[in-house]
Each structure stands twice: as C-alpha cells, then as structure tokens.
Amino acid sequence: LQPDYRNRSKVEKKAAIRAVKEKIKKPAVVPDEFKNKKKIEEMAGVYVPFWMFDCDCDAAITYNAERVIRWSDSNYNYTKTDYYKLFRSGSVGFANIPVDGSKKADDAYMEAVEPFNYADAVDFNGAYLSGYLADKYDVSVDESITRANERVQNSTVAAFSDTTGT
After folding, report:
1. What's the pTM?
2. In sequence order, which residues have a C-beta less than 8 Å from that of residue 131 and are 6 or more positions away?
3. Nearest in space to 91 (alpha carbons), one of 128, 135, 115, 55
4. What pLDDT, in 10s, does the model give residues 12-28?
5. Pairing of strands 5-6, 122-123
6. What angle (nearest 5°) sits at the alpha carbon of residue 119, between those of residues 2 and 4?
C-alpha cells in the first residue's frame, strides 16, 4: 500500500544539526557518539508510516466528587465537606487520530512528535523519501485500532475531567 499523504518535516536537517550541537554543550555527561561531528552530520530523517482514524465517541462518566468549605470565627475553624456523584455525558468527535504503523518505532516517541499539522500534508510521492530512512508499515490497520481506541478513550476522559473543576 502506498500512503495517501506525506506530512512535511517539522525540522529541516540543518536546524536539527544545530539543535543537537547546542544540546550536547549543556549536559555534563554525553556519550562520545553524540559529540562526533561526522556522526552528527550523518543524521538522517526517518519516514514512519501512520494510520489515521476518525471516530465519534459517546461517553458517560460518573465521578466521586466533594466540595469543601472552610471558615472560621473568633473561637473555631470549621470545615464542611459535601460528598456527591458528578455525572458527565456527551459526544466527542475525533479526526485524524494518528497511530504509527511501525513496530520499530516506539509509540511514546511517535506521540511525542505530535501534533501534526495536517494543513501541511501533501499528496504522497515516492520522491519525497529521498534522503530519508524509510520502511513500509508492519502494523496492520486492524492491529492499530486498539491503540486508536485507547487514545480516544484517554482523550475523552481528559476532556470530560476538565469540566469537573478539579
């Protein structure tokens, strides 16, 4: 399968090399490989295939909540705590949920380079891969659905939690 789109690099090679050189100046202990100018100059971009998912999610979440009110007078400090259930429900739509299609690429690293700017995506052309390390996907779309669903669930829980005031 050929990709539909290619997202442009966030960092050009020259800028990446400058960033690496700046970073290795700061830490006290840096492996020699990172200080080797030739190794730094040989740095290459990597093409990692991603599956993209769209999803509409209906959710209902119940939270154990409490409201604490404190006050005092000239003699005592008071605390009143009310306990209650807080219910949130609604629908959330997701578009372009990326899941990397490579077993070699660590999910945590791949998610760290997000978010992608999809407005910069261009139709795929194999010539774009010139100068990049590239591999075709080795994680199927069916295998990726579980990860996409985890991301939807985590994002939905976070979005609903943001409405609780905690």
Report:
1. 0.68
2. 44, 45
3. 55
4. 667 777 777 777 676 66
5. antiparallel
6. 10
